[in-house]
Design brief:
Elements: H1 15-25, H2 28-34, E1 67-69, H3 77-93, E2 96-100, H4 106-120, H5 124-127, E3 139-142, E4 159-166, H6 180-204, H7 211-214, E5 221-228, E6 238-243, E7 249-254, E8 260-264, E9 267-270, E10 278-282, E11 296-299, E12 306-313, H8 344-354
Parallel strand pairs: 1-2
Antiparallel strand pairs: 2-10, 3-4, 4-5, 5-12, 6-11, 7-10, 7-12, 8-9, 8-11
């Protein structure tokens, strides 16, 4: 498979030919690693890590990544109030936080990671039937959703399995057998947790508990399983380019390898893998810049594979005329709307056309 990739040392190098050769293998980045490559192909060389990107990772004790304990959240009113404040503070200052004692059993988390890995590591002939770039289908396996987008900074060192679980009813038979049962079980748990988070976010914004849920922020759920193979030259490429999430919020399950970084006070800060914890981050659609939708990325690593599972809460690119904009109840003379309202379909179409080009999704909608 790798023999089809163009010789990048050639003076006749054509990026599009190399992209197509890579795509045609349907083996993803894992196929390159399985073929025994020792150098990263040219299409993967990324400016973020090859000398012209943002400042390198900085680990300082003054940056303590927020961890919020949800234990007894519905049993102790005082604890509930404290949690609401912590959620608000973390969302306003970081845009990211981790939660522990969230109610999803460790056995389910572990099995979800195993199921995702099992899908990517099965025989390529089994995976190939899911490999395509038609995102109107409910299940999509490929490498880099924006592979052919000329605005994308580089190809990411990552393969993905994307499943649109809702709002429309989902037939489990559409999922690959290797992870079918656990994806269905995990989606049930994560949807329940998502509804709890929407209540906490609503309360922390000073809104009634059901406000964000009534805005249909929990109607849609998409689950993205990410597979980051070991990389022979992690200093040249990146697992996932800098971006913000084009949803209401995201729940991320990551394994113990690490690699997720958040841009905080102009420094890349590692999000430490914490056993049993889930990472929560604010998406572009949740508030009028009161809560931060911040840039984050995933590094490549010689150690691998790294597995992560991102659950995106949004109604998705459905043909709806419903407009979403800054929450009216939070607007005032001192806090005017910073973004124009748009349909979610328009928002996702813009994101798809833009790709991972290192710029903000929201800048296009700024007033």
């Amino acid at each position: 498979m790798i023999q089809q990739i163009q010789d990048t040392s050639s003076s006749n190098y054509d990026k599009n030919i190399e992209l197509k050769a890579f795509d045609d293998t349907k083996a993803g980045v894992k196929g390159l690693v399985d073929a025994g490559i020792t150098q990263v192909p040219r299409i993967f060389i990324h400016p973020e890590v090859s000398g012209s990107g943002p400042s390198p990772s900085l680990e300082e004790t003054r940056f303590v990544f927020p961890i919020i304990d949800l234990e007894n959240i519905n049993k102790d009113p005082i604890k509930h109030k404290e949690i609401v404040k912590k959620v608000g503070d973390a969302s306003e200052t970081w845009g990211f936080f981790q939660v522990i004692n969230h109610g999803i059993p460790m056995s389910v988390l572990d099995e979800m990671l195993r199921g995702a890995r099992g899908f990517f590591e099965q025989d390529i002939d089994v995976k190939k039937k899911y490999y395509h770039r038609d995102y109107t289908r409910r299940v999509v396996y490929n490498s880099n959703f924006d592979l052919y987008n000329p605005k994308a900074l580089a190809v990411n060192w990552r393969d993905s399995l994307y499943s649109t679980m809702g709002p429309e009813p989902f037939n489990p038979e559409e999922l690959p057998e290797a992870c079918r049962e656990i994806v269905m079980e995990y989606s049930h748990h994560v949807m329940k947790m998502g509804c709890t988070l929407l209540e906490l976010l609503s309360e922390s914004l000073g809104l009634k508990t059901s406000h964000l849920k009534e805005m249909e922020c929990s109607e849609g759920l998409s689950i993205l399983c990410n597979y980051y193979p070991s990389c022979p030259q992690p200093d040249l490429t990146i697992g996932l380019s800098k971006h913000t999430d084009n949803d209401f919020f995201t729940i991320l399950l990551q394994d113990d390898i690490g690699g997720l970084q958040v841009l905080h006070h102009n420094h890349w800060v590692d999000v430490p893998p914490t056993p049993g914890a889930l990472v929560i981050n604010i998406g572009d659609l949740i508030s009028n810049d009161k809560y931060k939708s911040v840039d984050h990325r995933a590094l490549s690593n010689k150690i691998g594979p790294r597995i992560s599972i991102a659950s995106f809460f949004s109604s998705g690119p459905l043909p709806s005329s419903k407009l979403y904009g800054p929450i009216e109840e939070l607007l005032s003379e001192n806090n005017p709307p910073k973004y124009r309202a748009t349909t979610l379909k328009d928002f996702y179409d813009h994101f798809s056309q833009k790709g991972l080009d290192g710029t903000s999704n929201l800048s296009h909608y700024k007033i």
